[in-house]
């Protein structure tokens, strides 16, 4: 069997050791810190391969919560020597070193409670602590994965705790930098373009004028509201399930354990986590995850609109709107020389579509908490984390490689606006809707200008038209 006949890069058999769990004995690669329960999960869930591996932020979060629990457990009787070794092992997890070395091989598609990843973490930390203390790998002596590393915990409360820690950290460190950078760049463009008057469009058809700055100001506000929506979810996200153990009662914990762990996790992360006020809700439902992804989904909707606008306004360069000029980053065609495409726009719209799909999966997962435990946890957190990373990275790339270099094609903007028939709207207060419509329809039918048509129809003089139809006077009430 592949799980017990692991091969190294040189195709030589890796030395194995024996480890036991409550179901029996298994071979474990001697160069790995995990144990029998991890191997059993590898055997039972050969799904997807390395690309479906439990997300890195979840494992880092597991290391953080195990470190916090070890510190607090000293107050409740855990031997300090063992606790110190566990804490040192947790630091190796938190650094990412052990993840990169392949000690966390399990995939998302396992038990829906995340039990096997919790035990993977317990086994790795226990064996690393045993190494630190000079013991024998797999002996569970002097550090036991369940009795010491998992003391006062259950997979049912550790995994949702890791979910909240991982998502909160990624929102802060991955999503917000990209989102804020793009918002700020577009805000700068809104100010830069504030005096450029252009034709507006509704229903994809010509409408009355506005400034290019006003058009961009809508994008800025969309992203600002998106940032605010994410921030509004944080109070629920900052509630931690740790201390609820199996079903939320806190069996096998001590009074104060949950609150002290939350405080310690806050100290380790710099995020104001609190013990969840109702552990039954924290285990049985993941409404906070759905809420967070709802904010991400709304951001995806905003990005789709913003970026589609930008690429449509930049369409051309000769036969489209061409009101915007985008940076030219790479050749756009293998057959059409000189073609350049809005590739950054395309990447970000694909990201938006993927995030919308992730939201469907997250919503279905969140709606399937049965009785005292939701068992869609790994899938839900994986989708939330993927959406955070895609949006954060996508915004950074779009900002750097497109947004900062957007220019207004003022000559084209002026040309299009002069050709618009909707400037006739300025005549409504002076000659009425029906006469204004006659001018516009006749000009369109005959291919003439509004001014020439108004004069030809003897509705206006040239002086009246010039006085009443001024784009700069059509930007709203003064």
Topology summary:
Layout lengths: L15 E6 L2 E6 L6 H9 L11 H19 L5 H15 L2 H4 L14 H18 L12 H5 L5 H38 L4 E6 L2 E7 H26 L1 E2 L16 H13 L4 E2 L3 H6 L2 H27 L10 E2 L17 H24 L2 E2 L2 E2 L2 H25 L5 E2 L1 H10 L8 H4 L1 H14 L3 H7 L5 H7 L10
Parallel strand pairs: 5-6
Antiparallel strand pairs: 1-2, 3-4, 7-10, 8-9
Structural class: mainly alpha
Instruction: Bin the helical content.
Output: 55-70%
For the secondary structure, the number of strands is: 10
Q: What is the number of helical segments per DSSP (H or I, 4+ residues)? A: 18
End-to-end distance: 79 Å
Name the overall outline: elongated
Q: In order across it, which strands form the biggest sheet?
A: 1-2
* Whole-angstrom Rg: 30 Å
Secondary-structure element series: EEHHHHHHHEEHEHEHHEHEEHEHHHHH
Let me know the largest β-sheet. 2 strands, antiparallel
Q: Strand-residue fraction?
A: 5-15%
Model regions low in confidence, pLDDT < 50 over at least 5 residues:
1-11
Average pLDDT taken over every residue: 96
